[in-house]
Amino acid sequence: TEEEVRKTIVDITKGVFSTMVMLDVVDEPPLAEPVLNFHETVTSMVGLAGSHSGILAIHCPKKLALQVTSNMLGMDVTEVDEDVNDAMGEIANMVGGDVKHIFSPKGADISLSIPTVIYGNDYALESISSAESLVMPFTCGEERFLLSFKIGK
User: Fold this and answer.
1) In the 3-class helix/strand/coil scheme, how is the chain assigned residue by residue?
2) I need a labelling partner for 28 at 20 to 30 A (CA). Which of 13, 61, 86, 135 fits?
3) Residue 97: which residues within 8 A CB-CB, separation 6 or more?
4) How many of the other CB atoms lie within 10 Å of CB of 103?
5) Residues 34, 110: Cα–Cα separation, whole Å
6) Do the beta carbons of residue 131 and residue 54 sit within 8 Å?
7) What pLDDT digit, counting tens, does each position of 15-43 carry?
8) pTM of this structure
9) How many other CB atoms are found less than 10 A from the CB of residue 140?
C-alpha cells in the first residue's frame, strides 16, 4: 500500500541520514501536491528503470546541503561545489538503492541511474511522468527538506 511504501521510505531516509551524516531527521505528513519551484536548493535525484520505472529526488535547502556535506566529509564546507554535488548525489543514490528493494526484493530487475544534482537560486522542476508523486517533508534541526518519489510499471 502507499502507506507501507511511505513508512519504508521514511525508515530508509532516517537510516541514511543517521548513519552517513550523523543527522537525525523527523518525518512530517506527506504533502497533497507536488512542489515544483525551488529557491536556494540542492536537488539530487536518481532514476529507476526495469520492472518499475520512476524517480526519487531529495530537495535540500543550501544550508542543510552544506551541513550534510560537511558531516559526510568531516570538514567545513561553506559553498556549493563539487563536494556538495558528490555528497548529495550519494545520499540520493543510497536512499534510491534501498527504495528499489521495496519493488524488487532482490533488486536485480530495477536499475538506478547515475545521480543528477541541480543547484540554483530559483528553478522549477517538473517530471513528465503521469505517475502519482509522493512528496514527504522531513525536518532536520531548523531546516526542512523534501523527498519526492514517483514510480510506475
Assistant:
1) CHHHHHHHHHHHHHHHHHHHHCCCCEECCCECCCCCEEEEEEEEEEEEEECCEEEEEEEEEHHHHHHHHHHHHCCCCCCCCHHHHHHHHHHHHHHHHHHHHHHCCCCCCEEECCCEEEEEEEEECCCCCCCCEEEEEEEECCEEEEEEEEEEC
2) 86
3) 107, 112
4) 17
5) 24
6) yes
7) 999 999 999 999 999 998 889 999 999 99
8) 0.93
9) 18
Distances (CA, A) of 120 to 62, 69, 103: 9, 17, 32
In percent, the amount of the chain with pLDDT more than 70 equals 99
Give the span between the Cα atoms of 99 and 93, in whole angstroms.
10
Q: For residue 102, what pLDDT is reported?
A: 86
From CA 95, how far away is CA 59, in angstroms rounded? 13
Which amino acid type is present at position 135? Answer: V
C-alpha cell at 4: 507501507
Contacts of residue 14, defined as CB under 8 A and 6 or more positions apart, other chains included, come to: 24, 25, 27
CA 24 to chain centroid: 15
